[in-house]
Amino acid sequence: MRNARTLLFGVTLFVAVAPAVAHAQARKVYISVDMEGISGVNGDNQTSAAGAEYGRARKLMAEDANAAIRGAFDGGATEVVVNDSHGSQRNLLPEDLDPRVRLISHSFKRHGMMEGLDSTYDAVIFVGYHAKAGSPRGVFAHTGSGVLRDLQINGLSVGEGGMNALFARWYGVPVVMVTGDDVAVEEQRATVPNVRGVVVKRAINSRAVELRPLAETRREIQEAAKSAVASARKTPPERLARYTVRMEMRDPTIPEVAAAFREIRLVNPSTVEFSRESMPDAYRLIRVLYRFINTD
Ligand SMILES: [Zn+2]
């Protein structure tokens, strides 16, 4: 009798609390998907549309994205938006994706890999990320495009994951998870110390990798996304007074063009510097400089 009463109390309590909990967990999740750090991807004939194995790679990309999407919904997401964040940003095919998501596609964007993120989101997940420019061991290590040797924001050298984390922080949306090779996951901790990481492959050097079994990495991505989303807590927006950006290029052609804009200072023939009062504005100009100036 005593046991039955305890049980009954437990059930009553659960019923009373459940609607409130369900409401509190309504979650909007943003997933930015790059390609170099996807499970099974390890060749440069996979990462651009002209490559012989591109068709395979975009399917692999969709599979890792789908694992994260399933996990996000399992973890309480009520809405998931996926942003295609690689190259042309038209790699993911909507027919290959979990039918519950919306897809942001095409690279003509102000905010590239973070297009559309704002303070209405509750969590950000990075899938398929890679090491920053100059990392000696990361597979396909680069930042933004091939033109950058280093990118610094307020004195901190960052890759795409670091830059994107600062963007998310501007809106107070936590980056809760990253997937990629071991170097990419480790580098992410410089800007998001307690980020949940799924290492899908081990970089042997800048080209060779040890690939983990696909079924295993996808299962791990799903499980990590589930717990990352379930435990995500929004933070107050972090808005610094000034974002000073220094971009060191591989050659002086882009700085030569960029110096035409009065607010862009030439630090040396291959390095430019500028300041912006918001991270989204800084991000937009970084993107213009590495992507939309053609000096061919
Ligand atoms: Zn990238």
What keywords describe this structure?
296 residues, alpha/beta, Rossmann fold, 7-stranded mixed sheet, 5-stranded antiparallel sheet, 7 helices, disordered N terminus, binds zinc ion
Describe this structure in words.
Helices cover 33% and strands 23% of the residues. It is an alpha/beta fold. It has a domain at 27-144 and 160-230: Rossmann fold. A seven-stranded mixed beta sheet has the order 3-2-1-4-7-8-9, with helices on both faces. The protein starts with a helix and ends in a 5-residue tail after the last helix. It binds zinc ion. Zinc ion binds next to loops. Zinc ion binds at residues 34, 36, 130, 160.
| CATH topology annotation of the domain at 27-144 and 160-230 | Rossmann fold
Order of helical and strand elements: HEHEEEEEHEHEEHEHEEH
Bound molecules: zinc ion
**Rg of Cα set:** 21 Å
Sheet with the most strands, sense and barrel status: 7 strands, mixed
Number of helices: 7
Contiguous runs where pLDDT drops below 50 for at least 5 residues:
1-23
Shape: globular
CATH superfamily of the domain at 27-144 and 160-230: Dipeptide transport protein
Instruction: Specify the helix fraction band.
Output: 25-40%
The mean pLDDT is: 92
Strand order of the largest sheet: 3-2-1-4-7-8-9
Strand % is 15-25%
